[in-house]
Structure formats: C-alpha cells, structure tokens
Amino acid sequence: MPLNLAVALFCATASLFAIAGADDPYRFFNWNVTYGDIYPLGVRQTGILINGQFPGPDIHSVTNDNLIINVFNSLDEPFLLSWNGIQQRRNSYEDGVYGTTCPIPPGKNFTYILQVKDQIGSFYYFPSLAFHKAAGGFGGIRILSRPRIPVPFPDPAGDYTVLIGDWYKSNHTDLRAHLDLGKKLPFPDGILINGRGPGGASFNVEQGKTYRLRISNVGLQNSLNFRIQNHKLKLVEVEGTHTLQTTYSSIDIHVGQSSSVLFTADQPAQDYYIVVSTRFTNPVLTTTATLRYSNSAGPVSGPPPGGPTIQIDWSLNQARSIRTNLTASGPRPNPQGSYHYGLINTTRTIRLANSAGQVNGKQRYAVNSVSFVPADTPLKLADYFKIGGVFRVGSISDNPYGGGIYLDTSVMNADYRAFIEIVFQNDEDIVQSWHLDGYSFFVVGMDGGQWTAASRNQYNLRDAISRCTTQECGT
Ligand SMILES: *[C@@H]1O[C@H](CO)[C@@H](O)[C@H](O)[C@H]1NC(C)=O
Ligand SMILES: *[C@@H]1O[C@H](CO)[C@@H](O)[C@H](O)[C@H]1NC(C)=O
Ligand SMILES: *[C@@H]1O[C@H](CO)[C@@H](O)[C@H](O)[C@H]1NC(C)=O
Ligand SMILES: *[C@@H]1O[C@H](CO)[C@@H](O)[C@H](O)[C@H]1NC(C)=O
Ligand SMILES: *[C@@H]1O[C@H](CO)[C@@H](O)[C@H](O)[C@H]1NC(C)=O
C-alpha cells in the first residue's frame, strides 16, 4: 500500500524578540568551526569540525536552562547552525535557518542565546546552509528533566548519543555542484554511526544494566533502521514526548527524527552487533557498530541481524504504534495527557505537497510548486523592522494545484493561536521528512492514497505523538 500522507495538528504562537529567562541556570559554550581531515569511510575528506571534533560536542542541559553558544566561523563560507526541535519560544531569531537568522560570515562569530524552555528530550543541531551537513557540524542535544519532575522509567546506567546518517565520500561543495548540474543526489557511499564507518563505533555496557540510547538521523536523504543483535529496544521518548513504552526488535528513524530507546544488557557476556541499514532502497546499505560487555568473553559472532528493507506496512504500523503516554509527565509535573488537543477545533486546513524537478537546469525541490529562494534579508528581520520588498505574504498557496515548479521567497501567514490542520502529501518515490522548525505537532494520521475530508474519521485525537519531524513515504 502506498503511504503518502501524514496529517499534523499544531498551534501557531507568536515569536517576538525576548531575552533569556534570567532566573534559570546558564550554560556557556565556545565553539570554533573549522575544516579538518576526516576518514569516516577510509578515505580522506574535508569535514566540518567543532572544536576539532567530528561529530561536534553534545549539548547537555536541563529544562529551562539558558544556553549561550558563541560560534566562531573559521570556514571560508557563511555558516549557520540550527537547533533541531528546540522550540525557541518568543525567540525564533536564534533559530539558525536562513529565514530567521543572518549567516555568520567567514572569520566572524555570533553568540546564539537560547532557552530550552519547558522542554525535555533528545534533539540535535546541524548546519542549515550550503550542504554543510554533508560534511559534519552536527551533534546531539539532550534536555534532562528537572530533579523533582518524575520520569517514567528508572535512571539508566548510561545514556549515549547515537547519530546515524547516510554519508558520501564526495565533499559538500561537490555534492552541491552535482545538484546545480541538474542531477539528483547519488546513492550514498555508506552509513555513519557517531562519525564512524563500519565497525568503527563501540558502546560499553555492564551485564545486567539498562542503558538509554538517544538516536537521531542526521543524514541527508535515507530512512534508516536501527537494531542490536539479540537485544530488544524499548521506546521511551520521541522528540520531547514520553511515549507508551513499547518494545521493538528494530526501529525506523527517518531523516531529522530523534528517538530514545532503553535496552538491557541481559545476554551472555560477549560483543554484539549494532546494525543500521537503509530502508526502501535497492541495494540496502548496512553498517555496524559494537556493543561491548565489560566482561565480554569474545568478539561479535554470527551474521549481523537483518531488518526490514522495503516493507512500507511495517514502517507504517510502527509509526502508528508510537503514542503518547498520557499519564507520564513531560517537562512539567502534570501529565502530558492534560492537554486535550483532540477537543480543539481546527481553524484552518493547509495541504502541502512536495515535488522535485529542474529549474534553469538545476535540481530543485518545491512545496506547492514553489521552490524557496532565500532573500538577502532574513524574513523575520524584514518583518520585525518592517522592511518592504523582501517577501510577500501569501506567495505560496494553502493547497497544491499541480503547476510546474517556480522560484519564489514563499511566505505563508498564520494567525496567533490558530489551531491548524496540515496535510502533507508526497507523490514522489522517496520518503520525505517534514520538519516544523520551532514547533511540535501531533501526528494524528498517516496513510496511503489521497486525503479527503473523510480521512478525518481515522485521526488519532487521543494519544498521538507530539513531535517536530514526521516522515511520509512516497507512492
Ligand atoms: C579556530 O581554529 C583555527 C584552526 O585551529 C585557529 O587558527 C583559530 O585561531 C581558531 N579560532 C578561535 C577563535 O579559537
Ligand atoms: C565574539 O566573541 C567575542 C569573544 O568571545 C565576544 O566578546 C563577542 O561578544 C562575540 N561577538 C558576537 C557577535 O557574538
Ligand atoms: C506511562 O507512564 C506511567 C507514569 O509514569 C507509568 O507508570 C506507566 O508504566 C507508563 N505506561 C506505559 C505503557 O508506558
Ligand atoms: C571538494 O573537492 C573538490 C575536488 O573534488 C575540491 O576542488 C574542493 O575544493 C573541495 N571542497 C572543499 C570544501 O574541500
Ligand atoms: C468546537 O466547535 C463546536 C461546534 O461549533 C462547538 O460546540 C465547541 O464548543 C467548539 N469547541 C471549542 C473547544 O471551542
């Protein structure tokens, strides 16, 4: 069955300039972004390093912390970092995408001032311009619960960031040039786990103990399946929501998504394969890392366990089974289920269809036929300072109409506190991720075929997951 639509509900709230919450703790970071040689697949490549590291350093924080991150751009190109899943309440100017924040010029620095207000969970940061993500510059972000807020599982013995993603031996400037020649992205050369190729990464555990993995897909295009030989994965959190704790033998993570799983090292003491493979591709790309028991009697043995490959139903069923634990606390002591999103009337429906095609000989991607062109002035600044001629509200329609792709600085407006239904429609043959920057939304439905008003009867209006990135498989 083709799976080509996903429906999200979200609430639009205002974004105004705001300063950090003065009473909450501060954490300071000084980051130097440089080029450096990396060898993730055994060949030398130009990577983007942060303080000499690839992937970049993790950000550890607690709900409501203020993060002050001074970033020096030592590259030869403008650079911007975006904080995937951080909600930037009244603070969208720090979000680090072209529409909100000026790029940091080469040789200059900029200090991001964020507050992880009312958030918990697992996220990551990445460079949002110029295909820099294909060279590195990404890292994990975790937001722990405040000490008195109950977490619906015991403290794990260890808590690891696991960044997985497809990878190319070509550098980011060559990949960019490839698209500008009108070609699509080639098939990747490999998959990396924490910046390492096959057999490179390892995770140490003690027999009998339970560990948390915060897995994010930081790749460019491919949906990935994650599994551990002979071990079950218990899903506990998805992009800041505590989930029903369901156990899976493997889990799909689509581009831009983050999930936390728990697993117990309950097997005979030896080493085991951690496997990540591409979904919906032919051939299937696979990579491994090592799970190492502290009292390990020997190396990994047997073939790495297989996972789902092209089965779409499997992925759809798993996605539908990911639901909110309504009685667990989120960032606040009250249960997550006390916000009854299903009782709120939607005030507007937006249908967004993605497409791919050539414009002026270059490979371009579009939403409702518009391929976004950045303006010289970030849109939020043009809006705030009332600078005319930068963008036109309504320059993208609320519905697809099937026309050819054209270039525009597309801007859609939303009313403050409007509760919006968004239907994502994918008629392409690869999986799409849709990310709403700075917002979480409830993924109330996902199915094949065309959306109609009758599709609403199938919505999950009770315990859908609230997240910032949803997938949509192609036809
Ligand atoms: C960043 O690193 C480069 C290369 O090591 C160095 O030349 C430069 O001085 C560093 N900049 C800062 C601000 O630390
Ligand atoms: C650049 O870094 C310097 C030295 O740390 C700092 O004083 C200054 O505020 C930074 N500038 C910006 C725009 O963040
Ligand atoms: C939901 O959270 C509650 C409260 O922490 C917990 O007791 C319960 O086991 C969780 N249920 C599931 C199915 O995860
Ligand atoms: C990428 O590789 C090409 C050669 O294939 C080279 O000309 C270019 O300078 C490289 N870009 C970077 C950022 O290293
Ligand atoms: C939603 O709309 C119905 C019908 O118009 C109305 O009776 C109900 O009060 C509305 N609910 C909310 C929460 O506004």
What's this, in brief?
Residues 1-22 form the signal peptide. With 475 residues, the protein is mainly beta. Helix content is 5%, strand content 38%.
* Main β sheet profile: 7 strands, mixed
Shape: globular
Strand residue percentage: 35-45%
Q: Specify the CATH homologous superfamily of the largest domain.
A: Cupredoxins -  blue copper proteins
Mean of all residue-level pLDDT scores: 93
Task: Count the DSSP helices.
Answer: 3
- Poorly predicted regions: 14-18
Through-space gap between termini: 8 Å
Name the helicity range: under 10%
Topology, please?
Elements: E1 5-11, E2 26-38, E3 45-50, E4 59-62, E5 66-73, E6 81-84, E7 109-115, E8 121-127, E9 139-144, E10 158-167, H1 172-180, E11 190-193, E12 202-205, E13 210-217, E14 224-228, E15 233-238, E16 241-242, E17 247-248, E18 251-253, E19 258-264, E20 271-278, E21 286-293, H2 312-321, E22 348-359, E23 362-367, E24 370-372, H3 379-384, E25 392-393, E26 406-408, E27 410-411, E28 419-426, E29 432-435, E30 441-447, E31 466-467, E32 469-472
Bound molecules: 2-acetamido-2-deoxy-beta-D-glucopyranose (5 copies).
One 2-acetamido-2-deoxy-beta-D-glucopyranose binds at residues 32, 34, 72, 74.
